[in-house]
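Example 3.2
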Amino acid sequence: MNPTLKGVLYVSVWVLLWGTAASLADTVLLTRGAYDAGTAGQAVTFTTYSLAAVVLAVRLAGRFLKAEP
């Protein structure tokens, strides 16, 4: 597989994972009344999940983006 395409797919999958996980957490927090839509709490939720996704993506990149022999 083309290394550039592999990198684009890798980042795309992480964006989807981040968005899905953050949205699920946000839905739970909104439903439970932890904060209202459009407030700082919502921004903190998405920012925290994005930072976690970046850390995990960087740590796991070596496993998935190895050069093929």
